Amino acid sequence: MSASATRQGHAVLDLVSRQWKGRKIERLLGLGESTQVRRLLEVGTGSGGIAHFFASQASPTFDVDAVDVTDARQVVEGYRFTLVPSALLPFESESFDVVLTNHVIEHVGDSSDQMTHLREIRRVLKADGLVYLAVPNRWMLVEPHYKLPFLSWLPRKLRSTYVRWSGRGTHYDCEPLERGELEIMTGRAGFDARNISVEAFRATLAIEGNKGTIASIVARMPDTWLQKLEAIIPTHIYLLRKSS
Questions:
Q1: Does 205 lie in the same domain as 105?
Q2: Residues 6+ apart with CB under 8 A from 44
Q3: What is the greatest pairwise CA distance in the chain?
Q4: Is residue 168 in some structural domain?
Q5: How far, CA to CA in Å, does 185 sit from each of 10, 69, 113, 118, 156?
Q6: For every one of its 244 residues, what pLDDT tens digit does the chain have, with 9 covering 90 and above?
Q7: Total domains present in the chain
Q8: Cα distance between residue 65 and residue 99, in whole Å
Q9: C-alpha 69: how far from chain center
């Protein structure tokens, strides 16, 4: 594999933030409403914090699997972990009630690999299952992995040059998506997609509190205003269900 194609690890190792993220996902998907044991898969588990959060809940109860291409886990208790070499998933079809793919699709490769990622998630999802999909917006002001302004705005052939020039690495190894192309891809993969970015923002504030003046101002905006900003917010968040 060439240097330009090598995908690096970008796991979030702050376990406190992973607990907050787990609570937010649970709230957004309405996962506290069932008394049944549900099987959950986290694709790209990173530190293992989110998988551990769901595995450690007394009520509701989850049976948790997690996969990743590298093992960067800081917490390993309570769930099963499998190393995978690609976007293909080592599970039988219709195995999971819930699948989480949180800032993963931008790391799996090009558009073909991203489609494989989505189609594999659909394959292992039960007919009435739910998917939490979070993807960095290509039009975010500051790219979150390399902390460089406007990095993902550039044409692909210039992104690695910017990364090298800044001293942040040898190449850019992510493929963030625009909202429109993400919705086209989820549709082609066989999903009905609902943008829940505004709900996710409200849930973040409820769990973590306001962080700074800008967040406080934005929090006062009505949902109709925030929905007009969905195309430029840093992260696209979607609830996916299988298309009928």
A1: yes
A2: 67, 68, 69, 101, 102, 103, 104, 107
A3: 53
A4: yes
A5: 23, 22, 11, 8, 19
A6: 233 345 455 555 556 666 778 888 998 898 876 778 999 999 999 999 999 999 998 778 999 999 999 999 999 999 999 999 999 999 999 999 999 999 999 999 999 999 999 999 999 999 999 999 999 999 888 998 899 999 999 999 999 999 999 999 999 989 999 999 999 999 999 999 999 987 877 776 666 655 555 556 566 666 665 666 666 678 899 999 999 8
A7: 2
A8: 10
A9: 15
Say yes or no: 89 and 196 in one domain. Answer: yes
Q: Which two tokens stand for residue 141?
A: 């002001």
Which residues make beta-bridge pairs with 82?
67
Q: Domain of residue 165: give its range.
A: 141-174
> Buried b / exposed e across 85-120, counting CB within 10 Å, b at 16+?
eebebebeeebbbbbbbbbbbbbbbeeeebbbbbbb
Tokens representing 224 are 């109709």
User: Within 75-196, where are the H helices?
Assistant: 111-124, 156-166, 179-188
Residues 58 and 164 in one domain: no
Length in residues, the chain: 244
Count Cα atoms within 13 angstroms, Cβ side, for 89. 26
